[in-house]
Design brief:
The chain is of the alpha/beta class. It has one domain (2-250): 2-enoyl-CoA Hydratase, Chain A, domain 1 (Alpha-Beta Complex), CATH 3.90.226. 40% of the residues lie in helices and 16% in strands. It has eleven helices and ten strands. It starts with a strand and ends in a 36-residue tail after the last strand.
């Protein structure tokens, strides 16, 4: 089962994603969701600032976050296991989307990941600064964020940016087998394991909101608002790029919530981010 939405990250795409996530969250049968692209060269293309919603608008999203952050948080916290199957470029917003997924598997021949915002005078607004360090370690996260360079699948795997680099011919079968295996397990157990792992690995909502504010502040600065050849190349992507919302396996899980607070300080804190678990029942994507 699949859905396709425009690959350029605009307000239309974001609203579409929110609606589909709402269906997934409310479906008691969905356990695994695989996100992939219908366009070979792009997993998810750039962020269209011109088409972005008003920043002054009050958020009505379930998480209370801005629309894009709401999408990412709900993928990361939702009552289903999310898998990104990456072919083509996942740069900027595409990388942020992949990082929000529970797992990432990349085509060895065709996947490219990066956070190029620094080269445009921008601060990434989808909280990759708060997700990458847990996956790659602080030094490599800073390398990725401060160089803005592209990473192929093999190097991304070495760094922890993706779970595995898989030969392109084997990628579909590999991901399908893993999704089916995970979906065969008890849905309550899947949900609880995901929630517990999230408690020690996902950034609090208030920290994610800070990155969105920093993005818009950097976009308003001269270095972030001017149009340069380098800037245009960094964000180039086809208007027809689409992301497939599909590959759902029968599932139901509980959805972790957020209180936005950190745990009490101890002499040996286990983690920097804190959230609490709240259970609710999800629904199915047609």
């Amino acid at each position: 089962m699949g859905r396709q939405v425009s690959g350029t990250r605009s307000s239309e795409v974001t609203v579409n994603a929110q609606q589909r996530l709402g269906a997934l969250e409310q479906d008691p049968e969905v356990r695994v969701v695989v996100f992939n692209s219908a366009v070979p060269d792009f997993f998810l293309a750039h962020y269209d600032i011109a088409a972005a919603p008003s920043r002054s608008a009050t958020s009505t999203a379930p998480t209370g976050l801005s629309a894009w952050l709401d999408v990412l948080a709900r993928i990361a916290e939702g009552p289903f296991v999310s898998i990104a199957k990456i072919r083509g470029r996942a740069r900027g917003a595409g990388s942020e989307f992949a990082l929000a997924c529970d797992m990432r598997f990349a085509s060895r021949e065709h996947a490219v990941l990066s956070q190029p915002e620094i080269g445009l005078g921008l601060v990434a607004g989808g909280a990759p600064t708060h997700r990458l360090p847990f996956l790659t370690g602080r030094g490599r996260a800073l390398e990725i964020m401060l160089t803005g360079q592209d990473y192929d699948a093999d190097l991304a795997e070495r760094y922890g940016y993706v779970n595995r680099s898989v030969p392109d011919a084997a990628l579909d079968g590999f991901v399908a087998d893993m999704a089916v295996r995970i979906a065969s397990f008890d849905k309550a157990a899947l949900t609880e394991v995901k929630a517990f792992v999230g408690e020690v690995s996902l950034p609090a909502h208030d920290l994610q909101a800070c990155t969105s504010r920093a993005f818009w502040a950097s976009a308003a600065r001269p270095a972030g608002s001017g149009s340069t050849p380098h800037r245009n190349r960094a964000w180039a992507g086809p208007a027809t790029s689409r992301c497939t919302w599909g590959s759902t396996c029968p599932v139901s899980t509980t959805r972790p919530g957020r209180d936005g607070h950190r745990p009490p300080t101890t002499s040996t804190p286990r983690h920097r981010f804190h959230r609490t678990a709240a259970h609710q029942h999800p629904k199915e994507l047609p």
